[in-house]
Structure prediction request, 1461 residues.
Amino acid sequence: MADRKALLPRGIEFVCCAVACALGLNTAAALADEGHEFFEKQVRPILVARCYQCHSGAKTSGGLSLETRAGWQRGGDSGAAVVPGKPDESPLIEAINYRSLEMPPSDKGGKLSDAEIVALTTWVTRGAPDPREEQQRIAGMSLEEAKAWWAFQPLPEFHGPASASTVDQFIDAQLHDAGVTANPAADRRTLILRATYDLTGLPPTAAEVRAFVADNSPDAYERLIERLLSSPQYGVRWGRHWLDVVRYADTAGENTDRPLPHAWRYRNWVFDAFNRDLPYDEFVRMQLAGDILLATADPQQRREGIIATGYLAIARRFGHDIDKDIHLTHEDAIDNLSKTFLGLTGGCARCHDHKYDPITSADYYALYGILDSTRLSFPGCEPKGQPRDLVPLLTESEHAELAAPWKAAVAKRDAARQARAAADKVRFKQATEGSLRVLASSLVAEGQSVLLTSSDSANLRVQLRKGDVLQLTVSPNANHGADSTVVDWTIEAANSTTGGSGHRWSVTELVGDLTRANPLPVAHEATWCFLDVTDGAALLDEKQEVVSGHAELHAWRLGELPSAFVNSAAQPVDAWTELPGHSFFVHPGPNRPVAVAWICPYDGDFRISGRVADAHPSGLDGVSFELVHCANPDYSAALLELGQSPVEPIVDPGQEPLMPVAFAAVDSQPHDVPIHERGDPEKPGELVPRRFLAVFGGQLVNADGGSGRAQLAEWILEQPIAARVMVNRIWQGHFGRGLVRSMNDFGSRGEQPTHRELLDWLSARFVASDYSLKETHRLIMHSAAYQRSSSRDPATLTADPENRLLARFERRRLSAEELRDSLLVASGDLDTQPAEAHPFPPEASWNFTQHTPFNAVYETNKRSAFLMVQRQRRHPFLAQFDGADPNASTPRRETTTVPTQALYFMNDPFFHQQAERVAARLADASTDRDRVSRLYVELLQREPSDAERQRAIVFLEKYPGERAAAWAGLARVVLASNEFLHVD
Amino acid sequence: MSQVPNKHKNSAWQATVCDCGRRGFLRSAVAGSMLFPALVRQLLAEDGRDKLGHEPHFPTRAKQVIFLFMTGGVSHVDTFDPKPALTRDHGREIKADHPEIKDRPGYEKIFLKRPQWDFAPHGDCGTQVSTLFPHVADCVDDLALIRSMHTSHSNHYNATLGMHTGSFAFSRPSIGSWLSYGLGSLNRNLPDFVVIAPHQTYAGTQVYASDFLPGPHQGTLVVPGAEPIANVAPRVPRSRQEHELAALEETNEAHAAQHEFDPLLTARLKSFETAFGMQMAVPDAFDLSREDDATMSSYGLARGQTTGFGWQCLVSRRLVERGVRFVELIDTGSSNNWDAHGDMLTHEPLARNVDQPIAALLKDLKQRGMLDETLVVWTTEFGRTPFNNSADAKGREHHPWAFSSWLAGAGVKRGITYGETDEHGMRAVVDPVHVHDFHATILRLMGFDHERLTYRHAGRDYRLTDVHGRVVQGVLA
Prediction:
């Protein structure tokens, strides 16, 4: 644990001390006062007015700075600009006389006046006295500036209990000074809506609103806040804020945009961390170094520590071979790390020192070394195949323990299978011996489709007796891979003596029904059987309703193969190959033929037609088939009996429990890296030791400190800016704007805080409360400022149009996630249980290239924070409603209002579906008036006014369509209304 | 925020007046009286777009752009950059420190490979074009052909991103978004930046993303077919939708009136009006039924056809007529495109797919007088190597060192070629034009100084050309 009382920015003191030593005594002080006076009166004004434009600060034309004595001593590209006492040898004097260079040039005001030239010449003749000391600089700031920079200052001492009224004191003081009157408190319905959306991202139920509005007890509001803070939905809402900042995504972002199937563990860890109010310092440590800090903790904590480093691992990957562009990934990480935890734009120092803030290029490569000494899980990329370096979450023995029940189940299944198969085969042999007649057989070559019938007739016609069996066997050829085979087989009764004529049976008709039974009784008392006929006949008796993650595919199988399966969807399914829609398939196993048998229901003539086709043309050698007629009724009896025999059902042991892994970070070989000159990794410069930013002390990574991530976390937390940045994010989550409005930039290009003392006080309080987020929420939400109405008083608007003084609460539109979740709440379809992994295609099937990158949108009724977010292709809904940018830190959601959003509310299928469900949910109301009331109460958590009710009734009556459509229409009107979409 | 001052208040008022007639479906009495003044106050913010754009830095004639992007890397030496020496030296072994062959097994030796199509001079200017583009060749007197293009990356992903955003690694605003941002809107019923593409190209949606520029500058994707823009087809009969929208407006107006006409709320009211307009304007823009037979056949289109590059070209003209600022047409997607590693002959169907439609577009624009105000850009992400690892290899590899692009229309010199590659088409040697220069030139043609069209984001001013770019004066008329 860090020493939380050590809030002094030790770094700054350290640097000041070092600089003071380096500069030694101020030799300038020895110069005569007289000379300085001459400089101040005669020379400095000329330099400032005529030279500084091009020769001061960052601008040093020709390499020359005239801002300090050292500047002209060092001079420009052509050496020292001034030789004291010798104007004739001083290039500066040459230039102002237009003898060599012509300075100042004509486009900068032209030649100096004669008097000015005389003054400068006299100054040089007198020895060029110049009191201007060079300021020690750290990149974009002088040391003095950095030392005084508000955001780096120590936090104030914090004493005594915290109270929300203190928050108000700071705000009220500024309102008072500005003569602005604050809004009164919001009404109670507004308050519960505001607080509920704010803490959970969901609307309150109508009952919750009613109860709160009616609750006059003094602690009603407090109980509300406590209830919301303890809701598991709180973590989803506030965790999502964090995911915005750390640019979370479920894909890697390189040229093929590969899925990150394990990233969800980090996402869920963040949600969980918020829910249990994990102290922020721990939260930071875990994300930067959880793997190191909890390496020897108990298994649960150790897993957590690994998962948390997902923060580092989800850095964006670039290019074709991502290892070649790892410097861009590190830039992405440094940029995010410095913005997220320090509110500084550190990524700017990759190619050069930061122009405005005290971050040098060496600082950048000091952090780069820490990251480069860390091994991130590898997401795969086009030239380098599949993911690797995923971090196991269990030890080998833990995993063996986990897998033991599965292994036992597999053994049991195999034993049962063996026992049964042996018995079945005997019966089959007895029944079929001598009674088989081959009707047709053929090779089906690679990619071919072969008719069942011989070439001279369209149909095969056979005479059968009741109980006869037709059996179509498909066998593998030499190569048994890729043998998915389409069977399209139809049998028609042509001319029957005992049954009906024109009856028809087809395997294709089984697509919706396959897994009902095996043997599978069908119309007109016929029966289908699906068999392994390797050595006899055994029923395929393992039912599988979802094949390879595809719910449209259903199968019977015996072990892995053989199998008979169907694609029940009308559309093709892209599984191991593209399987056509509405089709029946068999798949023989290695040397294990598969058969479909049909048991004839009555005597008669039957026509057989159909085809066998290779459905996976890449196995090179195709398959063979054979269609036989078995005229021995003992065989069909044996098959039917097999189906009924009371053998112990074979239990599917399910998927082998794989080693759970995280997309995470671990230390690799620690090493320092050189500066990349101008950001080019091919141009290594000076080696930089791994250390923290110089402005904060530049502490070095210990020799035994590994990559240095654990120390980095502590160094960050020692800086008061870390608490300030996080408190500001919390504030922004409540008010829509931070106290510092540039949330990711507390540097010199960022904005100054609107209420600095308040930010400091809250930050100190945050640290003192053991970095509790929930405590901070309480302080903020109990303030009067948070509970004000959002009405827009004209006088206040004029005085403070941007609401910097917080005289009112700022109305806001629902975020993309809140909108979608609210629509699902309205329809009653929202599933608030956390989601886990996305239904990505199995890793083994990935063949993504830059030509065919991964691309998917997964529908779910879970909360929108669980939607799969891609880097290369924005999720269409989230992109439309200003969702977070998965490629860059999004500290605050912007709100755009564009017509394509209106089109969503007019015509989007999902929106229409929710409205229709809302209407259907209310169908049981007794009267229209009652139903209108219910609609308002359910969607807006309030009763309609009389006028609204009346308007709704008129709307329904005049609706140009039937009543059910009118109700859906009315639901759309309410769901599209501004009241539904905004939080007051 | 922008560094460019905003001075066109008057024209906004005019635009407002013109749009009043569209309020036909909004019958509420409130709309006419109480709400209207409140809405007027919001017109500048309105649907989030800055209707007014920014005052151009230069006087300009180009107001709109049609950007034709050929995906996969078109071979320059087989299309617009004749290299007789390459034919002469076919099969000669050469050495090159080329990014595509570095450390690549099988590429230890490379040999020059001759073009597979003949070149001939065309038009009054006599510019040589290969037989792959017979129709475009017919238009050379209107083109400024740049034969000295080069780029910074040899991967599709990076080069495609670079050609669109000026960034070869990171997502940044697309050139279309920059121009939408810079120029403002001419038609409130249509987006300012439309991308018509049958498939996603490399780098996905990033190539037309607004990134940190405000959302309204995002490219709107049109996929050729029956419903070109998502959710633009009414899902309920028109009479019902109007009934619902009237009720919605009434509801929202009453709500806004109780909430001091908060701009956040009134802007959204306005957006429904625009969306309703889009529902009509979009199908109208895509409805080719009133195009005459001669026009249809010039683009190679059959009646009722809603796909193909001819359809894309004709629709682009119609969108430009209706005021869309930037229309990008992408010919294919990230596969089955110009990426002819295997066989250069695959260039033939791809060229045939675009050649006649492009020529038809140029002639159509010219005949209607639209070419005077419209800039047409034809480009790709990189060229293809004039060599391969054997003299009889059929394909060519990625070649960032040189490729050809052309400009036509407003503000562009006519019938010229600019820049040259060396005798084998390996490197741009005379007046090389980098992608950043190409961007700077396009912005210049639209009236902007590429160094001054900036946007403040994350503490610094960003521009399309990053810290690079030089206007190619030689192509400016």
User: Anything to note?
Assistant: Chain B touches chain A through 69 residues (CB under 8 Å). Residues 1-51 of chain B have pLDDT under 50 and may be disordered.
